[in-house]
Structure formats: structure tokens, C-alpha cells
Design brief:
32% helix; five-stranded mixed β-sheet; binds 2-acetamido-2-deoxy-beta-D-glucopyranose; 26 strands; signal; alpha/beta; disordered N terminus; DNAJB8 protein; disordered C terminus; 642 residues; Spore Coat Polysaccharide Biosynthesis Protein SpsA, Chain A
Length: 642
């Protein structure tokens, strides 16, 4: 089996990050006052242009003015609200050519777009499911070196969804839309005509993609947003927007008749030791009794929650025997001494007194335990999760991947909800974790530091230590304030302490449970001949046969991997799909074929193997190189493990 996996690893076609997660998206929009309410809802839900890997938002009104309705409900806005770039031109619709030029100029000047495959200028009223859109875009280009092209729906580029590759934007930036006449600007499609003209002049290919966009503005029939199209327009009212989002596959209805294109994810069967980067190390602080151990046990048995990450660690003040008796044989708990709950603290928000747990002291101990144990260093990201967090590993990984290149991440912590850092999913880069490990003492000196909720303590700790913050709308969907179905876009959902709701949320995110991998019985018979000399002339030989029978899983039951529809499966390494095929009754054909090939390949692998085993333990902990192959390798130490 090892040979098989090594073989498959060796023949893997080089995969780029973009191929695993779909093409990356940089989105920008111009908004006016009338779209402000929609925008604040999109921001809190983490969808729309906030669901892209990076965004820029332009307006002629400052954020204070735009979001004045939302600011009463969100006191930290505009600082932690959507970032708005102020334009000098008015944004009255239709946009004047001067405003359009200014926006494109600002985007190219900003330069962030260069890190992404596709640049999308969209109307805020455009609905899209990021995965669908990525699927459609990936047909045209998913590598970092795409041609300069722009997509047309039919004969024209749709004004509300202008999709250009970064090469196209770079060419356009030189040209700057300068020779469009300003007089033509007051018609709604003047912008698109000008863009087409400039693209043509800049030698950018215009490619037809009928699935890119659906315009409902001129349609008199019912507006139904199907799973097969990339985007839909216009949806200004929030309930309409969400209805369209729902139809586009935002949330899975667990018991609906199965839809072939329904997004789904299931168990990962990656062989232990092979990781897709960025790798994630997740840890949890669990109470010694009550509902937390109950839920953790359930997750342990299914490789969910923290167990879905590439490495994991449990911290508690009691041993596994006490906390998880049924799973203690393969679950290690790092013990901290003292209480695992703190007292309560109070503060006033909008004149109301709210009570919060004062658990900074407890979590400081837990972080110290994580730092001391040290296996977090072998991973790209370190995440503290709550027990009640529903984790969709592949989407979580993809959200982290959008923030930085695994090997060049620097010291970062993720503000996971709008501009804030919420406690359930605290993600920091490995470098940030090391910085924090070294600087812990400076975080535990302020007066009454222990009397804070842990997320607030962590937030001030990391900013004292100079760890930078990045925002991600895709990391966490917060269901505390507003209960609603879980979706197929975010990486984590919180809080779901109740087992029934936890399972329901999983299903809504597209999870279906595949029973633990079937086991197979291996019988190995070894024959040994021992030669005994009783005298100089007489020799007896005894033949003894030993039969060893062991039960081993046919596939490695490791963590969880997402199956994001058929087109996504094609991009997965072969060994991930084998288990799925088995479930569908495609018996081992692939494995047998691969095993035969492996037979041929074994000799050539011999050298690689001996190098592997000869390598000292220390080198096996090294970060894998950030080459395409390393994306799928990386013998990073399994932290929790057996
Ligand atoms: C643990 O909690 C109990 C009850 O809340 C308290 O009396 C005790 O002092 C705490 N122990 C520590 C070490 O903080
Ligand atoms: C563990 O923490 C809990 C909750 O704070 C506390 O009640 C319990 O006494 C602690 N156990 C030990 C052994 O300290």
C-alpha cells in the first residue's frame, strides 16, 4: 500500500494551488447610497464581493455616510466594517466615464489584483455562488499564466459582471480607457462599449461564455437562479438576494432528492503524511465533563471538528480516560492544571450590561501548552477552535489559502468576522504562533488581564506583539446572533453545541457521511527454517510456519476532504477518489491498475525510499518546498495521532 501511495504521489501531475482551490478572484464594485443596506448584509454574511478572495469597494460617499443605518447595530463600524475607497467623481447611475476611468485607474494603481487569476468588476446587486463561478472561470483559465482575456455573455461583456484575467487588466491599465468619448457616457452601456473598445485595442481576447451571467432585468418570467450559471442580476432587496443565493446552491437541503450538481463534501481519505497545503493544526480546550466531551467524542469517531485538520491537539485539565473514555486509546489530551472555566466579567454595549466569560487566564495556559508541545510548528496555520464549531476542512483550507502563499505568509492573525476577531475560530500563521510563543510574557502582565474574555485578550496580545491582521469573510459564519441554515461557502460555522443541530449544519454544508472505511483481513504466513546442529555430523532442520492475521483499513481513515461537485473531483489526487468509487460500487479497478503500475515503478522508487528512511527525524519536520509537488506532500508530523 505504501508503494502504491508513493507511486501515486510520484506521478501526480504538478498541481498549482489555483487548481486545487479553483481560480482566485479579486472583485471590485462601485456603490451608491441605495445599495448600502444590501452591502452591509453581504458583509455580515460574508458573500457577494466579500466572498471573493480580495475586494475593493468604491464610492463617492465615505463609509460613515454610507453605512449610517448599520452603525447603530455595529458600533465598531466604520473601522471594522467594509473598507470603502473614496472616489472624487460622483457615482450616480449610470456611471460617468470619468468615474469608470478613475475606478480602473485606482485598481491598477493599488496592484493587489496581480495576486489573483480573475478580476471581476461587479454590480453589488449581482448574486453568485463563488464555487459555481470558479467552476465556470476555470474552464477558461485557472493557472497563474492565463492569457489576456475577457468574458462575454453573448455579444457583449455583461456590465454587472465584467470578468477579466489579470493579464487583461494589466494590458488595460496601460491604455487606461482614455479614448472613450465622455459624451457617450450617459447611456448605461457606454461603459461596456468603451471597455470592449479598449480591450480590443489592447489586444485582449474576448471569449464567449454563455454561463457567466443571467440578466433578469428585462425578463418577465419568474426569476429562478439555477445551479448551472455563474451569476444573476439584479437583486437589490436582501430577501430576494438570499432566495436567489439559495437557488444557486448556497445551502443544501438535507432530505431533498439528491441533485447531481449539489455541492457535497465528505470524508477525506488522504494517506497520512500527505497534505494539501496550506496545512492546518487545530486545537481545542475541552471541559472535563458535560456536553463538550460528548460532542468531541462524536467528532472523534467521525474525524470531524478539529480531527478534520491535518494535525490536532486537545487541551483539558483531566486525562483522556476521564474526558473521552471510549476514545482514550487513540486520543491524547494535554493536561493543564487548575480550572478550565473562568469567572464572568461585565461590560456595557449600547447601554446594556452584558456578561462575558473571563477566561483569558485559562486560555493563556492552554496556548502555553500548545506552544510547549510544539508540533504546531510543522503546519502552515494554527487554529484554536471551540468544540461547537462545524468545520468544512477543504473550504477552511481554501479560505486560508486565499490569504497568503503558504511559504510566504509572514506573521498574521485572521479577523474572521467582518473586521473583528471572534473567539470560535482563531487562526494565525505558524510564524505568528511562534512570535506569540516567544512573547507570551508580555501578554500576561497588564493589570487584570485574566479578567477578560479570551478573544479580547488574544486580540490585544497579538497587536502588542506586532502580529498583523488580515480579514477573511470566508473563515467563519457566525450563527449566534442570527440562527439560519449553514451554507456551502464558509469554512466554519459556530456555535453548534447540540449534537442534532451540529449534524444538521454539517448536512446543510453538503456533508454526507460515508461509513468508516471497510477493513480487510491480511494474513501473512512466514516460514522459517532453523538449523540446529546437535553434533558435528548430524543436523536437524525444523520448519516453522507463523501466520499473522491483522485487520487493517482498506483506505487510510485520516481527515476529511471536500468533494466539491464533479468538476472539483477531477482535480483531486487519485487516491482521494478511490474510496468514493468504492462507495459507488466501482470495485478497486483503479487501485488494481495503479498497483500494477506501481510494480513497474517500485524499482525506480527504491532510491527515493531509502533516502526517505535515511533522512534524520529533524529534516522530516522541515517545511515542504513550495513547489507544486510539495503541495501534496510534506511529511509533517501528525500531531495528535495515536
Ligand atoms: C476553581 O473554581 C472554583 C469554583 O469556581 C474556585 O473556588 C477555585 O478557587 C478555582 N481554582 C483556581 C485554581 O482558580
Ligand atoms: C477542571 O476544571 C473544572 C471547570 O473549571 C473544575 O470544575 C474542575 O475542578 C477542574 N479539575 C481539576 C482536576 O482541576
Amino acid at each position: 500500500m505504501l508503494f502504491l501511495f508513493l507511486f501515486l504521489a510520484a506521478v501526480q501531475v504538478p498541481l498549482s494551488t489555483a487548481m486545487l482551490f479553483g481560480p482566485s478572484l479579486f472583485c471590485f464594485s462601485v456603490i451608491g447610497q441605495r445599495q448600502a443596506d444590501l452591502l452591509s448584509n453581504l458583509f455580515l454574511e460574508g458573500i457577494g464581493l466579500f466572498g471573493c478572495d480580495e475586494y475593493m469597494l468604491f464610492s463617492s460617499l465615505p463609509a460613515e455616510e454610507l453605512f449610517k443605518n448599520s452603525m447603530s447595530a455595529h458600533p465598531t463600524w466604520p473601522t471594522s466594517g467594509p473598507v470603502v475607497h473614496l472616489l472624487s467623481h460622483s457615482v450616480d447611475m449610470p456611471l460617468s466615464m470619468a468615474a469608470v476611468r478613475e475606478v480602473w485607474h485606482r485598481v491598477s494603481e493599488d496592484g493587489r489584483y496581480k495576486r489573483f487569476n480573475w478580476i471581476l468588476k461587479m454590480d453589488p446587486e449581482t448574486v453568485f455562488h463563488p464555487d459555481r463561478l470558479r467552476d465556470i472561470l476555470s474552464l477558461h483559465c485557472s493557472h497563474s499564466d492565463c492569457d489576456a482575456m475577457a468574458l462575454q455573455n453573448g455579444e457583449v461583456i455583461p456590465g454587472a459582471m465584467q470578468a477579466l484575467t489579470k493579464a487583461a487588466v494589466a494590458k488595460l491599465a496601460k491604455n487606461q480607457l482614455d479614448d472613450c468619448e465622455d459624451e457617450a457616457a450617459d447611456s448605461a452601456d457606454a461603459e461596456v462599449q468603451c471597455l470592449q473598445k479598449s480591450l480590443h485595442k489592447s489586444d485582449v481576447k474576448l471569449v464567449k461564455e454563455p454561463s457567466l451571467f443571467k440578466d433578469f432585468s428585462t425578463s418577465h418570467s419568474m426569476r429562478i437562479c439555477t445551479l448551472s450559471l455563474g451569476s444573476f442580476w439584479p437583486f437589490l432587496a436582501w430577501p430576494d438576494y438570499m432566495t436567489c443565493m439559495g437557488q444557486a446552491g448556497y445551502s443544501v437541503q438535507p432530505d431533498a432528492p439528491s441533485n447531481p450538481s449539489q455541492v457535497s463534501w465528505t470524508r477525506d481519505v488522504l494517506q497520512q503524511g500527505y497534505y494539501v497545503r496550506p496545512t492546518m493544526f487545530c486545537w481545542v480546550l475541552v471541559q472535563h465533563k458535560g456536553e463538550e466531551p460528548e460532542l468531541l467524542k462524536w467528532q472523534r469517531q467521525r474525524d470531524l471538528g478539529i480531527f478534520a485538520c491535518d494535525g490536532w491537539m486537545i487541551v483539558s485539565n483531566a486525562s483522556a480516560r476521564e474526558v473521552l473514555p471510549a476514545e482514550a486509546w487513540h486520543t491524547h489530551i494535554s493536561i493543564i492544571h487548575g480550572n478550565t472555566t473562568g469567572g464572568r466579567t461585565f461590560r456595557t454595549v449600547h447601554g446594556k450590561l452584558i456578561s462575558e466569560p473571563a477566561d483569558a487566564g485559562v486560555y493563556a495556559k492552554a496556548w502555553e501548552a500548545v506552544f510547549e508541545e510544539g508540533s504546531y510548528r510543522s503546519f502552515d496555520w494554527v487554529l484554536k477552535l471551540d468544540v461547537g464549531v462545524v468545520v468544512v476542512p477543504e473550504r477552511l483550507r481554501s479560505a486560508l489559502n486565499a490569504l497568503c502563499q503558504p511559504s510566504a505568509c509572514g506573521s498574521k492573525i485572521v479577523h474572521n468576522f467582518g473586521g473583528d476577531l471572534l473567539g470560535p475560530v482563531e487562526a494565525m500563521s505558524a510564524k505568528a504562533a511562534s512570535t506569540m510563543a516567544a512573547g507570551m510574557h508580555t501578554c500576561t502582565t497588564a493589570a487584570k488581564w485574566e479578567m477578560q474574555p479570551e478573544y479580547r485578550w488574544l486580540s490585544s496580545c497579538v497587536s502588542t506583539l506586532g502580529i498583523g491582521a488580515v480579514r477573511s469573510a470566508l473563515l467563519l459564519s457566525d450563527h449566534k446572533a442570527l440562527p439560519r441554515p449553514c451554507d456551502t461557502v464558509h469554512g466554519c460555522f459556530s456555535p453548534f453545541m447540540n449534537l442534532g443541530y451540529h449534524a444538521l449544519c454539517l448536512k446543510q454544508s453538503g456533508y454526507y457521511y460515508i461509513a468508516p472505511p471497510p477493513t480487510t483481513t491480511l494474513t501473512r504466513t512466514s516460514t522459517s527454517t532453523s538449523v540446529t546442529s546437535t553434533s558435528a555430523t548430524f543436523t536437524t532442520s525444523t520448519v516453522s510456519t507463523t501466520t499473522v492475521t491483522s485487520t487493517v483499513p482498506k483506505v487510510a481513515p485520516m481527515s476529511i476532504f471536500a468533494f466539491e461537485g464533479r468538476s472539483f473531483q477531477k482535480k483531486l489526487p487519485v487516491w482521494v477518489i478511490t474510496a468514493e468509487n468504492e462507495q459507488r460500487g466501482i470495485p478497486f479497478a483503479l487501485e488494481i491498475g495503479a498497483a500494477l503500475l506501481a510494480m513497474i515503478a517500485i524499482p525506480s522508487l527504491g532510491c527515493m525510499l531509502c533516502r526517505r528512511s535515511a533522512a534524520p527525524a529533524a529534516t522530516s519536520r522541515d517545511e515542504p518546498q513550495d513547489t507544486a509537488e510539495a503541495l501534496l506532500t510534506g511529511p509533517a508530523g501528525q500531531a495528535g495521532g495515536v
